Task: structure prediction
Amino acid sequence: MTLYDAYGRAVDTAQLREEQAAPTMTGVRNIYSVMHPSVGLTPEKLGAILRQAEFGDPFLYLALAEEMEEKDLHYLAVLSTRKETIAGLQIAVRPASGEAEDIRIADMVRDLLLGGTLNLASVLFDILDALGKGFSATEIIWDTSRREWAPARMIWRDPRWFSFDWVSGEQLLVRTLADENQHQPIGDTRGESHFEPRGSGLRAPRSSDSWRGVQPMTAPLEPFKFVIHLSKAKSGLPIRGGLARAAGWSYLFKNYVLKDWVTFAEVFGQPLRLGKYGAGATESDKQALLTAVANMGTDAAAIVPDSMLIEFVQARQTGTSELYERFANTWTGK
Result:
């Protein structure tokens, strides 16, 4: 018996036994992050990252969204509250009817979801990663040892390993090491024009079907292999629907003021330390004096030759921490 998916495509059950989006030691699905877009983030850099995501390559945007969760505790708390609220809900499984077959199926599903086979709360938490990034892809690892196949594990996959097609911006594709576009597209494309960007390397249409906007080094997701969650903080393309896109600008400006606040707190209340050296001081003497002046802020002790002098100049403090605190609270909505 042939199994068909929701779009009428025949399902290759052999593919269900393989992991399509497993990590690789090298290549496009590497777990190690070598690019840190949040480092040295500026308005120009953030704008470029957002535009790049709109134009079909969301890699840096998704990396930035991940780092925002690690560096902004308020943003992390907001996302975690939403995730844990859903993941902590009580789940009930009821049969579709009182017939024996429906009751048997309900018992099987209940045992799978609530009997400990899957850690459903953890799976739901990972699926809700879409809240920040706009989408999430959780791969199903099937247990095919029994007559009735069932999910053995559900693994969150790094969103950086995925991108969207170039035409609709809604079909999720997995990044690959080779051009593996051997699949039929989602939906029926008969009679529609085919998108083939110049130099894209897309193959010519096969019979009346073709890939539409499937860029090189990507492949459509196998049927029944993924749980895809598209989260919509607003209407529009999925890659623009996550909270991270809207929160990116507040993250940027809040980090500007936090940096200034930390600098202010570091020197607030401390007198200016002024080192003086004689006309015959060497470069080595000057460097030693500079080191002594710098260390006095933390060590409260230093030694200098008799020919040098350190003075403490009491500066009038005109700044206030309230400016930074109020500005930071503005960006967190307090």
Q: What stands out?
A: Residues 180-212 have pLDDT under 50 and may be disordered.
